[in-house]
């Protein structure tokens, strides 16, 4: 039976600057800065150990269009290792490392096949006589907004057909709408596998045929949570097998602690409780960056002081750990132990206040002086709708607290 195996990865974003995280202790920041390289190393290790036919990388190999020398050198080192093991690499460049940028070019070994700016077909043959056609194109500029899917035309004469595409599955608004496509359009091509890139969240859009976003290989900020990696794929006859391979060296995670259900009476108790949460999130040999939310914290607690001191305790005990769980933030949600109706019956003032809060729809206007501040605006991302409503809820709680105490 005709058979091939390969690894499909995407969005390596090698040498991501991890901006906005410079406040971390040096050792932790260094670990993060190395993380994209270490994650990629795990992938090439797997390719060698499993003796795959080839590795596919579906765009955004480099984070910056200048393709830092550091990133290219480290990437080439991995390509050389694969070359020695006779493993081919098929790659396309995406919106981050598009061909229009300017960089100092390091030559890659002969096993690395880079698709150019028009969809082209490359052929791979195994020694057992199985043949594969691979289709793909690289971004010539950052913003490729045109539909490119019609340029993929099946060329007969191979046992397997694999489409490689960096683009947006239409309807996904979290990522730039580059080279958009509908799933139906991919399926109509009658390929055996679609190796997608661009969306950083791992998603299998279809299983027959397999249409796969492996996601990025290493989370780069608090919104890219969980273990990330690549897929080991085997195509045998008409059967496709997918196996996820974890690759991240640093994992971003979230934890919630419900104080209404905990026995923590003192600060010491709370520290102990949080330490247990840290242990639950420790992954041997890996690093974790954790955001903790304490829910239902009682009304009387001095929340600012609590969060600050707790954070210090939790961070201090992790400083020298190899497999650290670094608490990046402690979010405190107070217990709502007042209800609107009761307050309204106490004074008309509260009815009016709640009315204003419910009708309020100008978070952006209120925050505009912050967002136009020359120093602050560089670090701020636009608030999403749900972040805005969380902020309004928090403000309500603060107001009631100040008014009622
Ligand atoms: Mn990307």
TrEMBL record:
Matching InterPro entries: Calcineurin-like_PHP, DNA_Repair-Maintenance_Comp, Metallo-depent_PP-like, Mre11_N, Pesterase_YhaO
Nuclease in keyword set: yes
CDD domains: MPP_Mre11_N
Listed Pfam families: Metallophos
Protein keywords: Exonuclease, Hydrolase, Nuclease
The keyword Protein biosynthesis belongs to this UniProt entry's keyword annotation: no
Protein's UniProt name: DNA repair exonuclease
Biological source species: Bacillus canaveralius
Source species taxonomy: Bacteria, Bacillati, Bacillota, Bacilli, Bacillales
């Amino acid at each position: 039976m005709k058979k091939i195996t390969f690894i499909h990865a995407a969005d390596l974003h090698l040498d991501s600057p991890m901006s906005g995280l410079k406040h971390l202790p040096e050792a932790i920041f260094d670990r993060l800065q190395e993380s994209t390289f270490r994650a990629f190393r795990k992938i090439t290790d797997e390719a060698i150990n499993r003796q795959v036919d080839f590795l596919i990388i579906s765009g955004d190999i480099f984070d910056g269009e200048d393709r830092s020398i550091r990133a290219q050198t480290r990437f080439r080192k991995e390509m050389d290792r694969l070359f020695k093991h006779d493993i081919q690499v098929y790659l396309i460049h995406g919106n981050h490392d598009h061909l229009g940028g300017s960089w100092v070019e390091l030559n890659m070994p002969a096993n690395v096949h880079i698709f150019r700016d028009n969809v082209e077909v490359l052929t791979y043959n195994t020694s057992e006589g199985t043949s594969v056609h691979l289709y793909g194109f690289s971004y010539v500029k950052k913003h490729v907004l045109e539909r490119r899917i019609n340029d993929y035309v099946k060329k007969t004469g191979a046992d397997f057909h694999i489409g490689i595409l960096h683009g947006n599955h239409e309807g996904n608004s979290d990522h730039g709408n580059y080279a958009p496509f509908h799933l139906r359009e991919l399926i109509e091509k009658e390929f055996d596998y679609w190796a997608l890139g661009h969306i950083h969240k791992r998603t299998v859009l279809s299983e027959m045929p397999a249409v796969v976003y492996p996601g990025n290989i290493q989370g780069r900020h608090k919104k890219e949570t969980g273990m990330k990696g690549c897929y080991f794929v085997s195509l045998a006859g008409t059967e496709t097998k997918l196996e996820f391979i974890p690759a991240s060296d640093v994992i971003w995670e979230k934890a919630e602690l419900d104080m209404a259900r905990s026995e923590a009476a003192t600060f010491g108790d709370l520290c102990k409780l949080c330490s247990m949460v840290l242990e639950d999130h420790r992954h041997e040999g890996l690093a974790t960056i954790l955001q903790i939310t304490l829910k239902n914290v009682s009304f009387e607690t001095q929340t600012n002081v609590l969060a600050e001191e707790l954070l210090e305790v939790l961070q201090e005990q992790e400083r020298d750990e190899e497999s650290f769980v670094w608490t990046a933030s402690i979010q405190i949600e107070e217990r709502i132990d007042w209800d609107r109706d009761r307050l309204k019956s106490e004074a008309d003032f509260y009815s009016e206040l709640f009315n204003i809060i419910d009708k309020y729809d100008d978070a952006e206007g209120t925050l505009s002086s912050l967002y136009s501040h020359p120093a602050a605006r560089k670090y701020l991302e636009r608030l999403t709708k749900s972040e805005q409503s969380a902020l309004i809820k928090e403000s309500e709680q603060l107001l009631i607290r100040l008014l009622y105490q």
